[in-house]
Design goal:
By secondary structure, the chain is mainly alpha-helical. It contains 8 helices and no strands. It has a single domain, classed as Serine Threonine Protein Phosphatase 5, Tetratricopeptide repeat (Alpha Horseshoe).
Length: 183
């Protein structure tokens, strides 16, 4: 890596590929801070040297999302996944597997953020796209369908629990008003 850094311009795409590969190794061995730093270097170079909607930029954004997911910084992961999705939607047809995989990543992240409605919405989009893809297996789609059903139940429960909370809060406020008027 040192030789490449000394011999190539600082924004050469080959450097970005090297940083991306180093980051992938760090990611695989669980050194997420080091993975993040190297994916970030790769992204910086790619943003300078490639068109803004290049698939390698989307790939690096997705990698940064995965790092944040592993580090449990889900809001940041979501942001990277959404930016990668935007690029995928700009460059690929609407049924491309990369778009489906982006929706899957976003849906899984929404689960971690406990927003089950958005999780279901994105996972359903993923299934719709990935069903058309030859690269997706029936078992991966079946797993997504099971996740969708599980999170539909959680979303319903969350809405129900919020309704009970709101009703109880309203009832307490009404009792206070009545108590105040009785004085």
């Amino acid at each position: 890596m040192t030789i490449k850094e000394k011999t190539l311009p600082s924004c050469h795409p080959s450097l970005a590929t090297s940083f991306n590969n180093i980051a992938s190794i760090y990611f695989d061995i669980g050194k997420y801070d080091d993975a993040f730093k190297n994916f970030n270097k790769a992204l910086s170079i790619r943003r300078k040297s490639l068109p803004s909607d290049h698939p390698e930029i989307a790939q690096t954004l997705n990698n940064l999302g995965m790092v944040h997911s592993k580090m449990k910084t889900y809001s940041k992961a979501l942001s990277f996944y959404q930016e990668a999705l935007q690029i995928h939607r700009n460059i690929y047809p609407s049924n491309h597997p990369s778009i489906g995989n982006s929706y899957r990543s976003i849906g899984l992240t929404w689960i971690h953020l406990h927003n089950y409605g958005k999780a279901v919405e994105n996972l359903e989009k993923a299934v719709e796209i990935l069903k058309e893809s030859a690269s997706s297996t029936d078992s991966s789609i079946e797993n997504l369908l099971q996740l969708i059903e599980k999170n539909k139940e959680k979303d319903s429960r969350q809405i129900f629990d919020f309704g009970i909370f709101a009703r109880n809060k309203f009832a307490r406020n009404e009792r206070r008003k009545c108590h105040w008027h009785l004085r």
